[in-house]
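Ops channel
N.P.: pipeline sanity check, posting one input/output pair.
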């Protein structure tokens, strides 16, 4: 006579194996009701037959893959698995996470479930779900912690009966939740890149994946959503839509979506987060920015922007990128500069480009692949420089930023950590000492000529060489102190989403007499939480060493009231 528990396991396993693959029966009619229906990347969820199965060991045979220096072993260990391994592996959730168990952690889940706008892990009561103690987030910059909800059961058979009604996706999915995603810079480098870095840490960055989109969609759509879909190579899965297809309350027999492989974790891996080396997370240590940008070209079917051979009399293609931070006189100066180069017989070919006139994004990529030298100010216009070929040079002209607290103007280069995180390129900066006196044609021409003479530089460039003088002062604050102070300093700094120049010039949140202007700050909608953690004596000492390279603050520029 067969054991009744064994018979139950066989029946439950058959139910599990026979559960339908995407899509659910009502998906097509539901999707046709959506305003974005008809977009190529927003079609109903197709089944898995149109994409080759992965051969990566972490996805094919996760149980037998040990931990590495980058990530841990598969968890949890379940003694009960010996009796019914297939049932355990097909129903219960398992996971492994990167070694950064604090704010930079990423996790790879197997059998992650979705219902009613929530993700769930299915566990036994004896399981230790350590992930609940991690700072695991779907979105970067945001303070929320996105830990999956837990469903606990006494036995795997009980779990299988409860979770018996599900649609399964066997593909790798990547959780993406970009803030302000209608903006290219925020979407790509606050949303897509941070989560992609998790794939790099697991060695999955060459894999095709589905983009699990955990933000409200643009209406009717925006180009950045299409970029995410194209980059993934798989499906674009908006949680905002899927929640209507799986509306239950976790009751037994209610329908779930089961995601066989799911990666997410983005907290401190984005732009606007500065690490001790001054670069964006993973850019130098894992070469992640290079992998990211080259994958983008590949996914759009464009030739990879390979390093160009330096030949005598070969043209040096320079692009000045339109930027809202340039004032009218600066735009006129830069356009005039482009005209003068066009009229000359120089090997330097300079053009003035406006991304608003180069659409879609694939056309922008095609242009970027041809540029040798990229000139602009900070912000969204600066960020695409990471897509330039290896050996390219970026010139950051910065801006003179008016500060209210205190009332001064400071040179501001903004996202210089992008260049420091792209060691396959070289970055140059306009003179900080005179930047608030306005741009000078002769100084820009001198930077262009310096870039021209730098052609053929070795890569990767030395650490710190792609930072401005202000950026170098900033990272010295960590180099000359202990790890405890450095971590406190960076945590305090990154909590404000500030720029490195604010520390160096002691403005805004880092103003030493901040307590004197608390009421003023509150009235003007500014943070008013006292002084930030800066060793002012150390800062003064380092600034003295760089005094000939940075602005000397003390007077109020005429354009500030």
């Amino acid at each position: 006579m067969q054991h009744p528990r064994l018979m139950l396991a066989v029946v439950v396993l058959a139910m599990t194996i026979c559960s339908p693959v995407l899509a659910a029966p009502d998906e097509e009619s539901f999707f046709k009701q959506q305003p974005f229906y008809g977009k190529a990347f927003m079609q109903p969820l197709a089944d898995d037959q149109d994409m080759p199965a992965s051969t990566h060991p972490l996805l094919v045979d996760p149980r037998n893959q040990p931990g590495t220096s980058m990530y841990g072993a598969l968890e949890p260990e379940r003694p009960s698995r010996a009796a019914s391994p297939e049932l355990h592996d097909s129903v219960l959730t398992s996971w492994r996470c990167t070694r950064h168990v604090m704010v930079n952690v990423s996790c790879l889940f197997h059998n992650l479930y979705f219902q009613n706008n929530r993700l769930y892990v299915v566990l036994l009561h004896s399981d230790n779900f350590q992930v609940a103690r991690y700072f695991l987030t779907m979105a970067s910059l945001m303070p929320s912690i996105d830990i999956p909800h837990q469903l606990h059961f006494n036995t795997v058979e009980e779990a299988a009966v409860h979770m018996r009604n599900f649609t399964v996706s066997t593909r790798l999915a990547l959780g993406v939740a970009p803030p302000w995603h209608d903006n290219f810079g925020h979407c790509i480098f606050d949303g897509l890149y941070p989560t992609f870095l998790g794939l790099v840490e697991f060695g999955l960055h060459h894999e095709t994946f589905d983009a699990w989109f955990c933000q409200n969609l643009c209406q009717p759509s925006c180009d950045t959503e299409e970029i995410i879909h194209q980059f993934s190579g798989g499906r674009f899965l908006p949680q905002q839509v899927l929640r209507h297809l799986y509306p239950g309350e976790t009751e037994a027999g209610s329908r779930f979506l089961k995601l066989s492989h799911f990666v997410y974790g983005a907290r401190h891996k984005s732009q606007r987060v500065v690490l001790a080396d001054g670069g964006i997370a993973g850019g130098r240590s894992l070469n992640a920015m290079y992998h990211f940008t080259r994958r983008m070209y590949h996914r759009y079917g464009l030739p990879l922007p390979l390093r160009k051979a330096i030949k005598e009399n070969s043209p040096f293609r320079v692009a000045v990128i339109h930027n809202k931070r340039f004032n009218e006189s600066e735009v006129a100066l830069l356009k005039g500069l482009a005209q003068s180069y066009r009229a000359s017989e120089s090997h330097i070919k300079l053009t003035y480009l406006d991304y608003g006139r180069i659409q879609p994004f694939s056309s922008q990529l095609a242009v970027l692949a041809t540029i040798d030298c990229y000139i602009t100010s900070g912000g969204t216009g600066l960020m695409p420089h990471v897509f330039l070929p290896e050996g390219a040079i970026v010139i950051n002209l910065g801006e003179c930023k008016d500060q209210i607290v205190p009332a001064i103007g400071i040179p501001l280069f903004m996202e210089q950590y992008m260049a420091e995180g792209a060691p396959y390129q070289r970055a140059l900066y306009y003179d900080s000492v005179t930047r608030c006196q306005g741009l000078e044609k002769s100084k820009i021409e001198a930077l262009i000529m310096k870039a021209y003479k730098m052609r053929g530089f070795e890569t990767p460039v030395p650490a710190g060489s792609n930072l401005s003088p202000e950026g170098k002062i900033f990272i010295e604050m960590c180099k000359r102190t202990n790890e405890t102070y450095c971590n406190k300093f960076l945590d305090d700094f990154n909590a404000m989403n500030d720029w490195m120049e604010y520390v160096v010039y002691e403005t805004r949140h880092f103003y030493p007499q901040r307590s004197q202007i608390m009421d003023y700050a509150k009235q003007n909608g500014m943070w008013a939480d006292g002084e930030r953690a800066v060793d002012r004596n150390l800062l003064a000492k380092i600034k003295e060493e760089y005094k000939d390279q940075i602005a000397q603050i003390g007077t109020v520029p005429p354009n500030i009231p």
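N.P.: looks fine end to end. The longest helix spans residues 184-201.
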